[in-house]
Write a structure and sequence with these properties.
This protein is of the alpha/beta class and about 325 residues long. The protein has a single domain, classed as Ribokinase (UDP-N-acetylmuramoyl-L-alanine:D-glutamate ligase). The protein has helices at about 45-55, 70-80, 125, 130-135, 145-160, 190-195, 205-215, 255-270, 275-285, 300-315; strands at about 10, 15-20, 35-45, 60-65, 65, 90, 95-105, 110-115, 140, 165, 180-190, 220-225, 230-235, 240. The strands form three sheets. It has an eight-stranded mixed β-sheet, sandwiched between helices. Strands 3-2-7-8 form a four-stranded mixed β-sheet. Strands 5-6 form a two-stranded parallel ribbon. Strand 5, helix 2 (about 70-80) and strand 6 (about 90) form a beta-alpha-beta unit. Helix 1 crosses helix 8 (about 255-270) and helix 8 (about 255-270) runs antiparallel to helix 9 (about 275-285). It is globular and about 55 Å long. The structure holds alpha-D-ribofuranose. Alpha-D-ribofuranose binds next to strand 2, helix 1, strand 8 and helix 8.
Length: about 325
């Protein structure tokens, strides 16, 4: 059967095992709260984004580090089963990275990441993968790995004219924006405020300031996800708002990663950016309907059906 996508991506990023505690209310500093549930699932921003792109039909090669422990072996097998190319994924003498996640009754979360093997991904080890990055259709990177490895991967892609998407999460205040070129940066509202020092909600009124920041940081397109509010696409051409896909979320962990994986796949296919965001918004919304970062990541057909349904219900309302 033909692949539903022509996209071929390299994802450089983290792979974690998530320990997820379900609570009624998130703890405040100094609080102890009792969970009603604990589950263990595959996660990590890199792994989640690779899986999202693979389920959207892209050919995906994952670069990163797993530990030489049972979690690492299970994670590799899981990615292989999902069709992600793991031939250049390192196994290192370490424990696999993990994340402690607390999710409340409204689906809000708090996450603490323990890097483990992810922390051993170095610039030189990425340099050894130059040939793989140089032939990619697109490079997708996040910042949950040592910054030097993220920057090295981006520099190789820049030299090879491979488009780059950076999901600048978690924010690293030392990221050397002016040393690299980025075709698209994806952030949420808090990250946008922290990185650009501006309020996303008022982007249209302060367009010149946003444009200045994008030029200074060598970013072509900035995408700001805002939960139930419209996603913003900011570039030298102005601001475009793309409505979020309406759902009642159960668990928002991994929604941003689902967005990034679908965004990268659609962008690599050459889809126009507002349409790319419509696909990514719908996929991210569907991802929130199940618990766990990867459990709810939809397949391309499901996203297509959700978009078709949305179109026909808005036609009925009109
Ligand atoms: O973005 C969600 C992810 O953040 C989780 O899967 C967790 O592992 C942390 O990396």
């Amino acid at each position: 059967m033909a692949r539903p996508s022509s996209a071929s991506l390299v994802v450089v990023g983290s792979l974690n095992v998530d320990f997820i505690a379900g609570v009624s209310l998130l703890p405040k500093p100094g609080d102890t709260v009792v969970a009603h549930q604990l589950s263990k699932r595959f996660g990590g921003k890199g792994g989640n984004q690779a899986l999202s792109a693979a389920r959207h039909g892209a050919q995906v090669m994952m670069l990163g580090c797993l530990g030489d422990d049972p979690d690492g072996r299970d994670y590799r097998n899981h990615l292989r089963r999902e069709g992600v190319n793991c031939s250049a994924l390192n196994t290192v003498r370490s424990v696999t990275g993990c994340a402690h996640i607390t999710v409340d009754a409204k689906g809000e979360n708090q996450i603490v990441v323990i890097p483990g093997a992810n922390g051993t991904l170095t610039g030189p080890s990425i340099k050894m993968q130059r040939a793989r990055i140089a032939v990619a259709g697109l490079l997708l990177v996040q910042l949950e790995i040592p910054m030097e490895s993220a920057v090295e991967a981006i520099k190789i892609a820049n030299e090879s004219k491979v488009p780059v998407i950076l999901n600048a999460s978690p924010v690293n205040p030392d990221f050397p924006w002016n040393e690299v070129r980025l075709d698209a940066v994806i952030v949420n509202e808090n990250e946008a405020r922290e990185i650009f020092g501006l309020t996303p909600g008022a982007a249209a009124q302060h367009l010149d300031s946003w444009k200045e920041r994008l030029t200074a940081k060598r970013i072509r397109h900035l995408v700001i996800t805002r939960g139930a509010h419209p996603t913003l696409l900011i570039s030298k051409n102005g601001v475009i708002e793309v409505p979020a896909h309406p759902v009642q979320p159960v668990d928002t962990v991994g929604a941003g990663d689902t967005f990034a994986g679908v965004f990268a796949t659609q962008m690599a296919e050459g889809t126009e950016l507002p349409e790319v965001i419509r696909w990514a918004n719908a996929a991210a919304a569907l991802a929130t309907l199940k618990h766990g970062a990867q459990e709810g990541i939809p397949y391309r057909g499901d996203v297509q059906s959700a978009l078709t349904e949305m179109k026909s219900s808005s036609r009925t309302r009109a």
